C-alpha cells in the first residue's frame, strides 16, 4: 500500500467512526453540497508528477481532500481569544451542528477556558511542557508525564527538580492566546502529588491565589460518573507534533498555529479499562488538557495520550476526584510503591476549606528512598543470542597527536553505494532500487529539515549536487557551520562481520579540507579524542576486500566528532551488538543512525564548538515479531569535562549525565530537526503520551533494560 493509500484509508476509517457514533453529523454529511467538497482549501497536494501514474495520484489526492474537509468540518479546532472560543463559522465546509452545540455551551465554556492554562518553566530545557487546569481554588491537575519534566520525589516528598541554576520554577499562564500578547501567569508553589506508574497519569500542584491584582478563575467541577457523550471538547495548547504521520493534514487543521490555547470538540466514544476514549483532535502539548462535557460544564476527564486520526485517552473525572480526596484528606490511605514503600498524605489539622494550606507528602519510613532508575526487562534475563559470538568492543575513539591525514583520489569513491534504504528487506540485493517500497522494511536515509537544512553541506560529485557522502555500507551528512556530521547512517550485517586492522585517519577529497576537522581540537589531553559516529567495526563486513574497505572508510574525519576519552560507556559501545542479538537470526541485519546534538550552548574549545550530547537510533526486523522496530538512545559527556575547563563550560545540570538513556525517536527528531520517517511510528516508546516535548527517558543501566517492543 502506498503512502497516499494509507493516508486515505486512515482518514476514511476515522470519518466512518465519527459518522457511526453521531447521527446528527452523519445526516449533515449526507446533505453536504458536492461543491463544498470540490473546492478544497487544504494543502494536501504534493509534487507527485514523478510517480509512474500521475493520474492515479491525482485521483487519490482528490479523495484525500474530500475526506480531509469532512474531518475538519466534524472535528474542528477553534481559536480562543480573550477567554472565549471564537465561534466564527465562515467557511462553507464548517458544521452548523457544531456551531449550535458550541453556542449553546458558551456559559460552560467561559468558565472552563479561564481555568485552563499552559505550564511554563524557567531554569529548564524547555520553556513550556503541557496543559493544566484548576480542580480546586488553588490546585491544578495535569499529567504525571508532564509533572516529571520538572518535579520528582526526593525520598521525603515531592519537589521541583534541579535546573540550570538551582531548582526549576514553574507557573501557569491562563492566557497564551492567538494574537494576544498579554499573559496571566500564576506561580506553581509546589508539587502536591504525582501518581506512580502504572497508576493513572495524574499529578497535582498548588498554585498561588493572586498574581498581582489578578485572582484565580473558578475551578472546573469534576463529573461524578463520566460516560460516553457526543458533545465534549478539549481545551489545551497543541504544539507542532513531529510524530504525526500526515504533516500536511495537521498543518491544515491547525492553520500552522501552535502553542496557543485552542478548543477542539468531539466525542467520548467509550469508557474502557479505567480510561475514557475520545476523538477530539489533539497534538503534543495537549497533555493535561481538560475534556469538558458541553451540556453540564463538568470535566469528564484529563487527556493524557493520543494517536493522530486514531483515538485519544483521558483519565476519568471520578478517578481524579478520588486521588484529589486523598491529597486533601488527613492521614489518607497509604499506597504501595514499586519497592513496597508506604506513601502517606497529610496536611494541617482539620483543614476543610477549598484552599490548600500546607500539603506535604512524605514517606512513612524516612530511611527508604525511591530510586529514579526505571528498568524495562525484555523477556528473560538472558536474551536469545546471535547465531555467532560478537566480540566486545573497546572504546571507539582515538587519542593521538596532530596528523597529516591520508587522502585518496576522488575517483576511488565511484563504487561506494553508501547506506541502503532497502537493507532490511528480506529480499534485499545490490540490484534492488533504494526507492522501492515493496514492503514496510524500507528505512530511508534521514533528512535534515527546517532551519537546519540550510546548514547541510552540499558538494559537486561527478557533475551532480550531493549532500550525502557515500562510503562502504554507510553514509554521512555534514554540517557546513560545525564541520562535523549531522549524522552517520550504517547498514550492519552481523553474520558477515570481519576482523580488520585499524588504518590511519584520512581526509575525504570530495569536500574541501576546510570543511573537515583533522586536528584543531584533537590530540593528547586536555584536547579531545576522535570519536567515531559509525563504529569502525560496523561497516567491516562482507568479502574480505569489501570489509577492509568499510573499515578504512570509517576512518574518514567526516565520521568523527570530539569526545572525551572516558565518554564511551560499555552500554553505549554494545548497543549495536545487543540489537543484533534480537534481529532476525537468519540475517542478523540492523541499520544504525548516530550523531551529535548541535545547540547554541555548545562551548568552543581549541577553535571548535564541542557537542555535549549524542544520540543513536537502531532499526531492525525483530526476531520475535517479524516486524520493523526502532529504538533511540542518548548519552552525554558533560561529566567527563576536565575541572580546569569549568569556567568555559559553566554549570551543567542533567539528570542523565554519565548514563545511557533510551528515549523517544520523536524527541531526537524534534531536537535535531532530522526527519526519521516511519521510525518514529515503530518506536516502542511512541504514542504513550502527549507532553509538548515527550522525552520519557529510560535510563539503561544494563542492556536488558532496553525495550524493543511495545
Automatic annotation (TrEMBL):
Binding site for Mg(2+): 568
UniProt source species: Rhizobium leguminosarum
Matching PANTHER family: ENDONUCLEASE G, MITOCHONDRIAL, ENDONUCLEASE RELATED
Keyword tags: Endonuclease, Hydrolase, Metal-binding, Nuclease
Residues covered by region (Disordered): 335-355
Record protein name field: Endonuclease G
A single MF term (Gene Ontology): endonuclease activity
Catalytic residues, chain numbering: 532 (proton acceptor)
Amino acid at each position: 500500500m502506498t503512502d497516499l493509500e494509507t493516508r486515505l484509508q486512515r482518514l476514511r476509517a476515522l470519518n466512518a467512526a465519527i459518522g457511526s457514533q453521531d447521527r446528527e453529523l452523519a445526516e449533515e454529511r449526507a446533505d453536504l453540497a458536492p461543491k463544498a467538497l470540490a473546492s478544497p482549501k487544504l494543502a494536501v497536494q504534493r509534487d507527485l508528477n514523478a510517480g509512474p501514474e500521475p493520474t492515479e495520484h491525482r485521483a487519490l489526492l482528490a479523495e484525500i481532500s474530500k475526506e480531509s474537509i469532512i474531518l475538519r468540518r466534524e472535528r474542528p479546532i477553534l481559536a480562543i481569544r480573550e477567554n472565549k472560543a471564537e465561534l466564527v463559522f465562515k467557511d462553507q465546509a464548517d458544521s452548523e451542528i457544531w456551531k449550535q452545540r458550541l453556542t449553546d455551551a458558551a456559559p460552560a465554556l467561559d468558565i472552563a477556558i479561564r481555568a485552563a492554562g499552559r505550564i511554563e518553566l524557567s531554569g529548564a530545557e524547555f520553556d513550556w511542557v503541557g496543559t493544566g487546569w484548576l480542580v480546586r481554588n488553588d490546585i491544578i491537575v495535569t499529567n504525571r508525564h508532564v509533572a516529571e519534566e520538572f518535579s520528582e520525589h526526593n525520598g521525603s516528598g515531592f519537589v521541583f527538580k534541579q535546573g540550570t541554576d538551582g531548582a526549576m520554577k514553574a507557573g501557569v499562564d491562563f492566557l497564551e492566546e492567538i494574537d494576544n500578547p498579554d499573559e496571566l501567569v500564576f506561580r506553581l508553589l509546589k508539587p502536591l502529588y504525582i501518581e506512580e506508574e502504572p497508576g493513572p497519569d495524574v499529578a497535582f500542584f498548588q498554585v498561588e491565589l493572586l498574581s498581582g491584582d489578578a485572582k484565580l478563575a473558578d475551578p472546573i467541577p469534576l463529573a461524578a460518573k463520566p460516560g460516553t457523550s457526543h458533545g465534549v471538547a478539549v481545551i489545551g495548547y497543541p504544539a507542532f507534533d513531529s510524530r504525526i504521520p500526515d504533516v500536511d493534514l495537521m498543518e491544515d487543521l491547525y492553520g500552522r498555529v501552535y502553542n496557543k490555547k485552542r478548543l477542539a470538540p468531539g466525542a467520548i466514544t467509550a469508557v474502557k479499562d479505567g480510561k475514557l476514549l475520545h476523538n477530539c483532535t489533539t497534538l503534543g502539548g495537549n497533555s493535561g488538557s481538560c475534556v469538558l462535557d458541553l451540556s453540564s460544564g463538568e470535566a469528564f476527564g484529563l487527556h493524557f495520550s493520543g494517536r493522530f486520526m486514531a483515538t485519544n485517552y483521558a483519565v476519568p473525572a471520578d478517578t481524579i476526584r478520588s486521588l484529589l480526596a486523598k491529597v486533601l484528606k488527613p492521614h489518607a490511605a497509604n499506597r504501595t510503591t514499586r519497592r513496597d514503600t508506604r506513601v502517606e498524605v497529610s496536611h494541617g489539622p482539620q483543614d476543610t476549606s477549598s484552599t490548600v494550606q500546607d500539603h506535604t507528602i512524605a514517606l512513612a519510613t524516612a530511611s527508604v528512598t525511591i530510586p529514579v532508575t526505571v528498568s524495562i526487562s525484555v523477556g528473560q534475563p538472558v536474551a536469545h543470542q546471535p547465531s555467532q559470538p560478537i566480540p566486545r568492543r573497546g572504546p571507539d575513539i582515538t587519542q593521538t597527536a596532530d596528523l597529516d591525514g591520508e587522502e585518496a583520489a576522488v575517483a576511488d569513491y565511484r563504487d561506494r553505494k553508501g547506506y541502503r534504504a532497502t537493507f532490511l528487506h528480506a529480499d534485499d540485493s545490490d540490484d534492488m532500487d533504494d526507492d522501492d517500497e515493496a514492503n514496510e522494511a524500507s528505512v530511508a536515509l534521514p533528512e535534515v529539515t527546517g532551519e537546519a537544512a540550510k546548514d547541510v553541506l552540499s558538494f559537486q560529485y561527478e557533475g551532480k549536487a550531493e549532500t550525502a557522502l557515500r562510503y562502504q555500507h554507510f553514509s554521512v551528512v555534514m554540517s557546513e557551520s560545525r564541520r562535523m556530521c549531522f549524522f552517520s547512517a550504517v547498514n550492519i550485517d552481523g553474520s558477515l562481520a570481519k576482523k580488520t586492522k585499524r588504518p590511519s585517519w584520512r581526509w575525504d577529497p570530495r569536500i574541501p579540507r576546510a570543511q573537515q576537522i583533522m586536528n584543531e581540537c584533537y590530540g593528547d589531553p586536555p584536547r579531545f579524542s576522535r570519536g567515531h559516529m559509525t563504529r569502525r567495526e560496523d561497516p567491516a563486513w562482507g568479502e574480505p576486500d569489501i570489509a577492509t574497505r568499510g573499515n578504512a572508510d570509517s576512518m574518514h574525519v567526516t565520521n568523527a566528532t570530539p569526545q572525551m576519552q572516558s565518554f564511551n560507556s560499555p552500554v553505549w559501545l554494545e548497543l549495536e551488538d545487543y540489537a543484533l542479538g534480537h534481529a532476525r537470526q537468519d540475517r542478523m541485519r540492523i541499520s544504525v543512525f548516530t550523531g551529535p546534538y548541535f545547540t547554541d550552548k555548545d562551548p568552543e574549545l581549541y577553535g571548535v564548538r564541542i557537542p555535549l550530547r549524542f544520540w543513536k537510533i537502531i532499526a531492525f526486523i525483530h526476531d520475535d515479531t517479524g516486524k520493523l522496530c526502532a529504538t533511540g538512545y542518548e548519552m552525554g559527556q558533560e561529566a567527563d569535562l576536565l575541572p580546569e575547563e569549568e569556567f568555559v563550560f559553566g554549570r551543567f545540570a542533567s539528570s542523565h549525565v554519565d548514563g545511557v538513556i533510551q528515549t523517544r525517536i520523536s524527541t531526537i527528531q524534534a531536537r535535531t530537526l532530522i526527519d526519521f520517517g516511519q521510525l518514529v511510528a515503530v518506536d516502542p516508546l511512541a504514542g504513550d503520551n502527549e507532553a509538548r516535548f515527550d522525552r520519557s527517558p529510560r535510563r539503561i543501566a544494563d542492556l536488558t533494560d532496553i525495550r524493543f517492543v511495545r
